Amino acid sequence: MKEVLAYPANYWQTMYEIWLIISVVIYLVVFLPAAYFLVKYRYRKGINEKAQHVEESKALEVLWTIIPTIVVIYLATQSFAFYRVQRNAPEGALEIKVTAFMWGWEFEYPNGKKVFSFFNSVVDPEKNVYLTTDKVNDMFKAYIPEGRPIKVLCTSRDVIHSFYVHPAKVTEDCVPGRITHLWFQINKPGDYWVFCREYCGTQHSKMAAVLKVVPKEEFENWLQQGVQANQENSKHNL
């Protein structure tokens, strides 16, 4: 079985394929008979000059009412079932608070560690183009463990932004004065983009961040780096 790169992208993909298949089937069911009748009963001088009366069929009327109803009920039920999974983070998810600002992101971890990622860290200011993820300094990357659900609590300091995790195909608005949420899980180590999908000002197109997905042990080591020193300094200052 092929491993899914990220969740809940697989649910989005499955739902897309279901709707696509049903749409194609409906199109063919409607188009092919319509094309056939268009040719068969087209106007031809001396042959089809008068309109032909067609007897209605109650069975056919009932059939094309029942079948679409069943299809709509199925799509609604399936979509709702997927929505519940896509919306609610699994148990044991790591909570990270993400605060958007013009024009960057603040990632705050449960132990208080913070990472700031803003456009100067991911854009070449001279050429005004995006850098590739491997050229972004690691200090500006938000580390997350591979294979573990991540619950993101989103908010904003200024205007409405939208936190979009590209590989997981999930996005959520970051609204000032409110806490919204989403979840995702990336199953393969590597660097992945996060973008803002809500137009937020002149630097919107440069508002990006990099998620660095690493093995769980490496993540735990990174998470503790710098935190103990800060705690000791705080105690000393007190």
Task: State the fourth-level CATH superfamily of the largest domain.
Answer: Cupredoxins -  blue copper proteins
**Largest beta sheet: strand ordering:** 1-11-8-2-3-4
- How many domains comprise the coordinates? 2
- How would you sum up the major sheet? 6 strands, mixed
Number of strands: 13
Rg on CA atoms, Å: 27 Å
| First-residue to last-residue Cα separation | 56 Å
Shape: elongated
Low-confidence regions: 231-238
Structural class, from secondary structure content? alpha+beta
Strand content: 25-35%
Helix-strand pattern: EHHEEEHEEEEEEEEEHH
CATH architecture of the largest domain: Sandwich
Relative helix content = 25-40%
Classified by CATH, the class of the largest domain is: Mainly Beta
Word description of this protein:
The structure is a single chain. With 238 residues, this protein is an alpha+beta fold. It folds into two domains: 6-42 and 56-87; 94-233, Sandwich (Immunoglobulin-like). 36% of the residues lie in helices and 28% in strands. It has five helices and 13 strands. It has helices at 9-40, 58-87, 119-122, 216-224, 227-237, and strands spanning 6-7, 94-101, 104-108, 114-118, 123-124, 129-130, 141-145, 150-156, 161-165, 170-174, 180-186, 190-196, 208-214. The protein has a six-stranded mixed beta sheet. Strand 9 and strand 10 form a beta hairpin. The longest helix has 32 residues, at 9-40. It is elongated, with a radius of gyration of 27 Å. The N and C termini lie far apart (56 Å).
